[in-house]
């Protein structure tokens, strides 16, 4: 039998008064009978009373009718033993006074001891202490398990989804076809495309497929009898094992919406709802719209510059000879670049040139050979006028989020002084300074030709075919190696237009010597005559 140990730190009277409900308050000389009305054995501990109760317990293990001659209340000291304890429903205590009437019992019933007494702890058992290295090891293991669980969830919620592209055709009975709808970036075309995109976005972003729908884009408009039809490309992300189900769900959403009277789009019954497309072809179409760059990049600069963010200027390209960057250029079509004529003063043979795309020179996204170079007929190397050329690539570029074309403004487009514009390139970070590997960007502003033609600036050297941009205070400017690169302006909140081509200047960032650019609007008809863009 295990040793019995007293409860540490407790006096006998405290325990008796707290746990035996007035049992100790009886007058001395009484005999108390404790009856356990119901008992249920459990493996654990039991609370015994020191004295005759302990002695009787050894003889009578069930404690039924145990009598304790309690002449001293302090005999009821609670002790602990690793054995069995009894869950008591209630206590019936009968007291008999020895000195008055031995035959008279005072019976008291007490509530269950097990409901009021805290379960006694097992004393004598050694507590296990955690060493620091065990705590660290356990914590690390828990964190690794959580990281693994989160990783698995992310994989199944995101990376396990595959992109699917579908082409759909819709009828727009309320609009008649107009030739302006075929004119790229015309206002009527732009507005109708936005209206259709908003309609499609609303259909799916408020549906059960809102977490799978990515975006849509109008491919083209074409006439149909007295009305109009639109081809639309829709992009989804579906889990690999339920593509068919989700596609049917998408078709059901379209069918329900297009049959309602609140949609101006109607189903083209001559073709299936959703026709799956090749991913590369679809991405080319989705990114074929011009001027899709960053909404508004943070201010940076070429001199002492900061690298441009990826896809901020997806039309920027590098013209190279033997792998060495010489000039910048802008992608204006899948097979055409716009640049400066003076870039070819020394190397006129197209076979010597290659073109790279991407924000870094050392590891470009893609490259192309040059098929032909067309320099403006009036350009002369000893002058700055007509400093413009177009370059035809050996094969068309496949558009993507990182390789897109810039928009060309109409010949009538006007830009006001103080307008904010950006110039980008891999030119020197300062006059006679190093050349960066990453594309640089700088925000400057348009300066009127009248100001730039002042005697203390360029003294009348800026012609109508040129545009002046920068600051008269200097510092922010294009520099050597930026020639041929784009000067762009954000228009209509989201479309970038090519306003100028880096042409010439005096030093880099010098006071009263801002950069001079070839004015694109001045040569807009010439560009179209050579490229049909």
Structure description:
By secondary structure, the protein is of the alpha+beta class. The chain has a 6-stranded antiparallel β-barrel with strand order 13-14-15-18-17-16. Strands 19-20-21-24-23-22 form a 6-stranded antiparallel beta barrel. Strands 8, 9, 10, 11 and 12 form a 5-stranded antiparallel sheet that branches. It is built from 9 helices and 24 strands. The protein is globular. The protein folds into 3 domains: 5-116, no CATH class; 159-286, SEA domain (Alpha-Beta Plaits); 316-531, Trypsin-like serine proteases (Thrombin, subunit H, Beta Barrel), CATH 2.40.10. It has helices at 12-19, 52-59, 113-116, 132-159, 187-205, 243-258, 279-286, 449-452, 524-531, and strands at 5-6, 30-36, 41-49, 66-70, 78-86, 91-97, 105-110, 161-172, 213-224, 227-239, 266-267, 275-277, 316-321, 324-333, 336-339, 353-357, 366-375, 389-393, 420-425, 440-447, 466-470, 486-491, 495-504, 515-519.
The CATH topology of the largest domain: Thrombin, subunit H
Mean pLDDT: 77
Structural class by helix and strand composition: alpha+beta
Helix content: 10-25%
CATH architecture of the largest domain: Beta Barrel
How many domains comprise the coordinates? 3
Give the distance, in angstroms, between the N- and C-terminal Cα atoms: 102 Å
Q: In DSSP terms, counting alpha (H) and pi (I) runs of 4 or more, how many helices?
A: 9
Q: Total strand count, please?
A: 24
**CATH H-tier superfamily of the largest domain:** Trypsin-like serine proteases
Shape type: globular
Radius of gyration: 44 Å
Q: Sheet bearing the most strands, described?
A: 6 strands, antiparallel, barrel
- Tell me the strand percentage band: 25-35%
| Poorly predicted spans | 1-102, 104-124, 297-301
Q: According to CATH, what is the class of the largest domain?
A: Mainly Beta
Give the spatial strand order of the biggest sheet.
13-14-15-18-17-16
